[in-house]
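FORM 7B: Structural annotation worksheet

SECTION A. Query
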Amino acid sequence: MCGILLIGRRVNVTKQGESQECIQDESETFLSLDDFRSALEARGPDAKGQVQVQLSQLSALELTCSLLQLRGEHAASTPHLDDLGNILLFNGEIFGGLDVPEGCNDGQMLMQALGQPHADITELLSQLRGPWALIYWHAVSHTLWCGRDCIGRRSLLVHFPDSVCRDLCITSVSCPSTHMNGCAVCTEVPNRGLAARAEQGADFAGESSVFWEEIEPGMYSICFGDSRLLEGRATGAMQTHAWANPLLYELAAYQRPAHLISPLSNESDNDKALAFQAASAQVLEALQRSVNVRCKCIDVPDSLRLANVEEGGLAPAPVLVLFSGGVDSTLLAACAHLALPPDAPIDLASICFDQGRSPDRLSALDAFEELKRFAPEREWRLILVAAALEDLDRHRAHLLDLLRPSESVMDLNIGAALWLAAQAEGSVLVHNARHTSATSINHPTTPANQSPPSATAASTCSQPAHLQLGLENITASATAAVEHRGPCNGGPYNCGGEEGGQIQNGDSGGINGDSEGTGGDSGGTGGWYRSRARVVLLGHGADELCAGYGRHRTRFRSQGWEGLSAELALDVGRLWRRNLGRDDRIIADVSREARHPFLDEHLIQTLLGLPLSLVADLRQPPGSGDKALLRASLRRLGLERASKRVKRAIQFGSRLSRQANVRDFGSNRAANMAKAGALHLSDVPRAAHDR
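SECTION B. Predicted structure
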């Protein structure tokens, strides 16, 4: 994972189709690396670098990248450079479509491919599988490229030069609004910097959404090579390029063939049952492949490992699951168990804003018990993150900077819950604890039976033979998927990273200094713990793909199967704008990388090839018909109680929204009447006052 930033100094760049006009220097407002430094370093604490390209006497491009290294056995330099003068800032993971040999960094391999003579950039980027956002300078053609994958799983923001801020800026994350070298962020208030306005008590709510735009998934270029100079400035227009692979449009549109939308009327009950069983096996196989690659493609160079771990410490877990105990997170935890070696611990983080009494906390505790019975040999760690409304208030300004340009009440509530949960710090329940030494953590061995990776397989990692443990409840096809070997071999547990998480037994303060009831089992201590996992598995996309929201049921009641299909397509099509960019910025800020197994290209393609009535049958009640195939997957694994849980969004299940609503609106009912979740944050005081 990386933080990427491009600042174009005194360049005249417009959107495609807009006229070129010279932007006058009405003030000395500009952006600088210092504005973004803290945000970039949080995203990439391992390394950073900067390169400058001079376009004209006045115009220049400054390219900066920070690195959280997860791929490659050796520390990588950043940005990626080659002898031709090409420069690559890459924030992503290549899980398929490009050969990445064992022990190599995927960004470096992409750089080599892009630099080949006569390389077709659009063709190459269209082949990639996995989440990515990038900025690429092609030196020979003097062309700047940028873009993000077809689903939009990595954040990428843009500011086009205007009369307020004359710089072009493309970045993973916005800079703090009070550190913008005098750049006002609202075109209605030119030449007045934020710092000066802050001294006068100005409220900036809503303005930064004018300054920053989310770049829509796709590929874009700005050619400076044949442009004229406009008053000494390099000029160009951002051009949009079509994906070379039609499949990417199909995945992003999420529209089924017409014959798969409505169920067959003449199908017998037995045929329906057989079709459902086959479909559930197919989906579980595809999901397991997706989780395999996301659990195995984690390398940490020896130079970045800490040499010593205190005696009695816990080995670092390779992955962290944000864990509500619901369908999505429990299924991901179970699949992670099947993907990882038996000696690798798995961290689960449960966030609660109600002193341990929230619905999600109770579900998480129950699902933890189910997982212990499902995989008794696994070391499971349930981290009980205790938060309060005061934590949101304390970090509000920082959270707003991360969220921009997303600025609704719902954005803040979801963002705060995710950010605090991703800290993964709190009292811990440990099942089957294995205390370890520094040697066993930092020097994993590769089993002799592990074969070389395949250069042709996509979206899967090689799996040692011991991963067959615990597969008794999975069909033969799903078992085959777990045993499948692919291009991202990272060793049996090549995820060491930092020192092992330490359990402390004093009154260590947590997020808010409050601890919940503790008590371990099977070797657990109930002490204080912070996860050292660099990868976070998230359930994003499960509800959009498999009809998990209440609005899906509403649309189905009014417009039937066609209406449901259209609603799902709408939700998937706006994931990049409503969820993914925002949450990438939130999770990356705690130096962890978000990975989304449900948004794997192969899994989406699998779901699109199935009848909609098998994916979700909303004629059945909540907790049954919604996300039907995912619930069936849990039942196949023996996780019956988790398979019946009803959907709760994180802000509701953690009780954050209820507490915020009571404080800001007087009650949940008043907040609902005001449609609080959709309100812009600047409207909350007025809406609360008018209740």
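SECTION C. Observations
Residues 2-249 form a domain with the Glutamine Phosphoribosylpyrophosphate, subunit 1, domain 1 fold (CATH 3.60.20.10). The mean pLDDT is 82.

SECTION D. Sign-off
Analyst initials: ____
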